[in-house]
């Protein structure tokens, strides 16, 4: 009969047991998951059972991690994402969430740009921890991404972005995601990508402040190379601050649109 063990299908005999498989596959595992549920007792396996053996704190090999990821979003999608490069301009509430989402789906290379440091006030919405306060955001995000997926390439650029360096910084990227707070910086990045490059796509973000309804947040296709995420209305201002829930929703829109574009789906 056939069972799946750590995402690989193997042939076993009809008398095979969980502990017997564990002893031959991963004797030092601490946790055993059978068909989605943790177990502590031995039992005979049935055809089609799904076993996962885990050793706490162990880093999977590159092949193991890729096999697990392929099983979640199909080999074809995984291969495209693995061979793609995405840039993120700004590593605050939007950018840190976007970078982590793209790392989790296995985008092969990320170019992450920011010149700022992590401040205590950032912790209400940005993907950093207390231990990161005072660190450069580029250093902090690289540390976080290494703990999520150490096998992707992460290029960090600790530099202020302006119209003179945008094209060079993002030269390898198929897609650039704008994640700035400053409207002038947003416009400069978007306009430079659209006017000074031929094939790159740009995803901008606008309108994510406050505690308004989540349902007003959307992704819009502005033209064949420019997409815009957010509610397009609620900017950060006194009495209407930026907080994790809506910022994270917009970040999810942007990351998802990037994935869709990478696999060739240009519709919103």
Automatic annotation (TrEMBL):
Domain ThiS-like ubiquitin stretches: 1-57
GO biological process, one term: cyclic threonylcarbamoyladenosine biosynthetic process
Transmembrane parts of this sequence: none
Domain THIF-type NAD/FAD binding fold: 79-267
Matches recorded under InterPro entries: ThiF/MoeB/HesA (IPR045886), ThiF_fam2 (IPR012729), ThiF_NAD_FAD-bd (IPR000594), ThiS-like_dom (IPR032726), Ubiquitin-activating_enz (IPR035985)
One Pfam family per UniProt: ThiS-like
SUPFAM superfamilies cross-referenced by the UniProt entry: Activating enzymes of the ubiquitin-like proteins (SSF69572)
The protein's name in its UniProt record: Thiamine biosynthesis protein ThiF
Classification via NCBIfam families: PRK08644.1, thiF_fam2
GO molecular function, one term: ubiquitin-like modifier activating enzyme activity
């Amino acid at each position: 009969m056939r069972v799946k063990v750590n995402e690989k299908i193997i042939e076993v005999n009809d008398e095979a047991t969980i502990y017997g498989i564990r002893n031959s596959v991963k004797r030092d595992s601490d946790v055993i998951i059978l068909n989605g549920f943790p177990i502590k007792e031995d039992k005979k396996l049935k055809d089609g059972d799904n076993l996962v053996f885990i050793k706490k704190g162990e880093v999977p090999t590159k092949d193991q991690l890729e096999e697990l990821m392929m099983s979640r979003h199909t080999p074809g999608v995984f291969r495209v994402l693995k061979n793609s490069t995405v840039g993120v301009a700004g590593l605050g509430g939007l950018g840190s969430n976007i970078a982590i989402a793209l790392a989790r789906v296995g985008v092969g290379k990320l170019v992450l740009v920011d010149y700022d440091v992590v401040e205590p006030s950032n912790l209400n919405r940005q993907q950093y921890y207390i231990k990161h306060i005072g660190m450069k955001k580029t250093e902090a995000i690289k540390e976080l991404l290494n703990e999520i997926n150490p096998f992707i390439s992460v290029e960090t650029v600790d530099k202020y972005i302006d119209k003179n360096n945008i094209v060079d910084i993002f030269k390898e990227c198929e897609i650039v995601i704008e994640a700035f707070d400053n409207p002038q910086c947003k416009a400069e990045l978007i306009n430079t990508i659209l006017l000074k490059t031929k094939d790159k796509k740009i995803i901008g973000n606008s309108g994510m402040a406050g505690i308004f309804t989540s349902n007003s947040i959307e992704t819009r296709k502005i033209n064949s190379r420019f997409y815009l995420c957010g509610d397009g209305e609620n900017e950060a201002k006194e009495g209407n601050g930026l907080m994790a829930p809506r910022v994270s929703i917009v970040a999810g829109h942007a990351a998802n649109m990037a994935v869709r574009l990478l696999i060739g789906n240009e519709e919103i």
